[in-house]
Amino acid sequence: MKVVGITCSIDEKKIYLNRDYIQSIIRVGLTPLIISPDMTEKIIDSIDKISGLLISGGEDINPEFYGEKNTACKSLVPDERVMAEMKLLEIFIQKEKPVLGICYGMQLMNVFLGGTLWQNIETDINHTEGDHEIQVIDDFLLKKGIYRVNSSHHQAVKTPGKGLEIFCMAKDKVIEGVYLKGHPFFIGVQWHPERDCSEASWKIWQSFSKKIK
């Protein structure tokens, strides 16, 4: 049984995770394990039993994590979640296990590696809803070309973190996908591949599952 840990949103009393993430993991033949911040140390202690990590979407990361003051963040992710996921990223990078970050997850990967974020995107493209085109400029995962993806965010990677390479972006130059050079599979995408079955999204899930051991 190949287990993939999925992080989740939290408040003081509850955890939250859209079922789309769970269903996507099951669809590619893997077993999902929901990870709340309370479980972080146990997961680290049992890292050999976890085959991969999925960092799900969420709200905004406190800009203090990347050395800025809050000028445009709307609803902050609890610091507890951010710090727990950073601990997980550290061990998954160390063990060279596959990691996929979606939306907030991609932004967290970037901040973890020392990058910064646009606190609010102001371009001609509406990134907060609907869909738009992206251009793949590095064909390590998807063939170079134009793809259409969904969109549900108002923040994005500004300065890529150490070792991160850009593989796709929107027409307004907003970064839509990154990967960590030299790692077997450390990929972040700004759209939500769990929500649709587009060519780009399905390729993400296929590639992720093939790297799971």
TrEMBL record:
InterPro entries, per the entry: Class_I_gatase-like (IPR029062), Peptidase_C26 (IPR011697), PuuD-like (IPR044668)
Keyword terms, alphabetized: Glutamine amidotransferase
First and last residue of the signal peptide: none
Gene Ontology biological process terms from the UniProt entry: polyamine catabolic process
Record GO cellular component, one term: cytosol
GO molecular function terms noted in the UniProt entry: gamma-glutamyl-gamma-aminobutyrate hydrolase activity
Name this polypeptide is given: Type 1 glutamine amidotransferase
